[in-house]
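Researcher: Let's do a round of design. I'm pasting the structure tokens now; please hold your answer until I've finished.
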């Protein structure tokens, strides 16, 4: 199959005159330049979207300490389901956590947690809550599982 395609391509090229070959090469170069420009624009747009999301989400993350190890959960959606079920955005494999325990939402850079009628309750800074606005440094307890709302460490940029 490939040798046949190459053969047909060669026959097509051999029938072209020199100006046609130059014109074809110029067209390929122009198309490649457009493709490269689109790739760079998409990368730039992606970085801009990420910066906008950092502003909307206040750049926060959840941290959980388990067995002397920290686990970090980036808050990358405007609604995050917390629970034991495998469909939860942040899955906590703790029997004291309900399958669908709580949901976190962000509006205008402010995160809010809402309890979904979990038996063991949702606590923010050790106070039981039904719904509560969150701030960096808050301790969220779902059953026996503790999560801390933190800012990621600032990474130094290389020059």
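Researcher: That's everything. Go ahead.
Model: Designed sequence:
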């Amino acid at each position: 199959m490939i040798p046949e395609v190459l053969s047909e391509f060669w026959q097509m090229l051999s029938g072209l005159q020199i100006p046609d070959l130059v014109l074809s090469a110029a067209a390929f170069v122009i198309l490649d330049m457009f493709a490269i420009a689109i790739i760079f624009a998409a990368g730039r747009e992606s970085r801009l979207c990420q910066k906008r999301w950092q502003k909307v989400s206040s750049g926060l993350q959840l941290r959980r300490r388990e067995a002397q190890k920290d686990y970090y959960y980036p808050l990358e959606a405007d609604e995050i389901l917390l629970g034991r079920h495998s469909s939860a955005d942040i899955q906590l494999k703790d029997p004291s956590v309900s399958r669908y325990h709580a949901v976190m939402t962000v509006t205008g850079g402010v995160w809010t947690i809402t309890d979904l009628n979990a038996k063991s309750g949702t606590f923010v800074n050790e106070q039981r809550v039904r719904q509560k606005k969150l701030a960096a440094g808050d301790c969220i307890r779902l059953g026996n599982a503790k999560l801390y709302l933190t800012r990621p460490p600032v990474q130094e940029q290389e020059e």
